[in-house]
Write a structure and sequence with these properties.
The chain has 494 residues and is α/β, with parallel strands linked by helices. It has 15 helices and 19 strands. A five-stranded parallel β-sheet has the order 2-1-3-6-7, sandwiched between helices. A five-stranded antiparallel β-sheet has the order 9-8-12-11-10, sandwiched between helices.
């Protein structure tokens, strides 16, 4: 409080001492003008330019020109009063300080003057230099504050009106009091129609509505909550909702809201997703054709050899083996492809995540030993239990572990397996110190038939991804060339 008072007086002192203060005294009594003028001139440390106006109509012109810093107005102005002048000034949007002067103190006039926008009210008989100095100081400071406040209000009003996002003010029940032009466009309502409607009435999805109601009850600010709303013309729109809670001057709860329409972004995402799926299907068909063509060529060449004279029975048997082997390969590719596209209908039981991962490690133990891979394993002391289809999850982890082993150099590989448990999720980390994956290949890592291995089919990680997704889990891959790769699998708690 003391600091505020100090800066208040400092601001006023600077105004009074650094420039000429222009004052007009509007009074039809010349003697009163000279008396008041002498009091003002006696104020030390300031330079004043004081003018006189002695009739109401001239005073109106002066008000309109806004040529002065402070206006002293007598209550009696011929057939008019100072209150009449205040009313006209307010109608003109005048906000410079007007001080009403009266011959005698009158509480009723005092109250009316302040209600009409007067900055101060003084009794002529009680005037002194000190009172006028204080009045001028207060009037100039209040005028500066009001102008600053008005400038800020105009700035925020412009932001409010010109914002491309729907901005609105509502009560604690989310009944809208006021909205900008963008809000009218979003809701498909005129400004007058928008006032009084409830935001919740436009949120048709029950889960979205309950989420908003739950957050509003806490009266804590929140940002970018994704919801779906339906405008007055029944068009559904995806939006991000932000709400801030405060109180107005009367201490009533007020909610400031912003709705950012992301419908076009969602449509673009869907279009891109569909384009991506088409491109992925095209790559899948080309890869599948390539994978099947190779063994078919081998079978075709073997059949051509049968049409020629054969040197021995052994040669005949060798050709038959080639055809059998390639037929088996084609059958294997088709079986894995069908398994991949089949929706997984799994049954889930509570299982220890440590047991599932250990079983997966046992599946690749021989390969680890042959490659001389060092295993670094870190588990929590207590069992981490998740709902899982154990057999399928073992397959998923085994495929990832095999990829990790094949990426590392024999005798120098270090395989890290960690399990972490938090109230929100259980996480499995599988990391290697192998060659790493080029950044441009990471987005395609789980695509069917995509592989960086010379003789790989490219279905192992696709199968793992499908199984992990069926467990409502998320998988994230981070890799750095010559440093290794990390697979993070997170099982969310319900």
């Amino acid at each position: 409080m003391e600091h505020d008072l100090f800066y208040f007086y400092l601001k006023v002192w600077l105004m009074l001492s650094t420039r000429e203060i222009r004052i007009v005294i509007i009074d039809d009594d010349e003697d009163d003008f000279f008396i008041i003028s002498d009091y003002i001139k006696a104020i030390e440390g300031s330079v004043f330019k004081i003018d006189w106006c002695n009739n109401y109509n001239a005073a109106i012109d002066i008000i309109r020109k806004r040529a002065y810093d402070v206006y002293f107005v007598d209550y009696r102005l011929g057939n008019h009063t100072g209150l009449d002048l205040l009313t006209t000034a307010q109608a003109e949007g005048f906000d410079d300080p007007i001080v009403i002067l009266t011959g005698k103190g009158n509480k009723v006039i005092d109250i009316k003057a302040m209600e009409s926008g007067a900055t101060d009210y003084l009794v002529k008989a009680d005037l002194t230099t000190e009172k006028l100095e204080r009045c001028v100081r207060y009037s100039l400071s209040r005028a500066a504050d009001l102008k600053e406040l008005k400038a800020r209000e105009n700035k925020y009003r412009n932001l409010f009106e010109t914002s491309k996002d729907a901005v609105f003010i509502a009560d604690e029940l989310l009944v809208i009091r006021e909205g900008n032009q963008a809000a009218s466009g979003l809701f498909k309502l005129e400004s007058k129609q928008l006032s009084g409607v409830n935001l919740l009435d436009f949120i048709k999805n029950t889960s979205f509505k309950e989420k908003v109601q739950q957050l509003v009850r806490t009266k804590k600010n929140f940002h970018d909550l994704e919801i779906e709303m339906e405008d007055a013309e029944k068009e559904k729109k995806a939006c991000l909702l932000s709400l801030a809670f405060s109180r107005d001057n009367e201490e009533n709860p007020v909610v400031h809201g912003i709705l950012h329409d992301i419908s076009s972004i969602k449509k673009a995402e869907l279009t891109n997703l569909q384009a991506h799926k088409l491109a992925m299907n095209e790559r899948l068909m080309r890869t599948l054709a390539h994978e099947i063509r190779n063994p078919l060529n081998n079978i075709s060449l073997s059949i051509e050899h049968f049409s020629m004279p054969l040197d021995s029975e052994d040669e005949k048997l060798a050709l038959v083996e080639i055809m059998k082997r390639n037929c088996t390969r084609i059958n294997h590719i088709i079986t894995e492809l069908l398994d991949l596209t089949k929706p997984l209908e799994l049954t889930f039981q509570p299982h220890s995540l440590q047991e599932i991962v250990d079983e997966s490690i046992n599946m690749i133990a021989d390969r680890m030993n042959l490659q001389k891979i060092y295993l670094n394993k870190t588990y929590p002391d207590d069992a981490v239990t998740i709902p899982a289809n154990k057999a399928k999850l073992v397959i998923a982890f085994t495929n990832i572990l095999i990829n990790a082993i094949e990426a590392m150099e024999s005798g120098r590989g270090e395989l890290t397996v960690m399990i972490a448990d938090t109230p929100d999720r259980a996480t499995v980390l599988i990391a290697d110190n192998g060659a790493g994956i080029p950044e441009e290949h990471l987005p395609r890592l789980f695509e069917p038939f995509f592989t960086l291995k010379k003789n790989g089919v490219g279905l192992g990680l696709s199968v793992s991804y499908s199984i992990i997704q069926s467990h409502n889990a998320a998988i994230d891959v981070k890799s750095e060339l010559k440093s290794g790769t990390q697979f993070h699998i997170a099982f969310e708690r319900n």
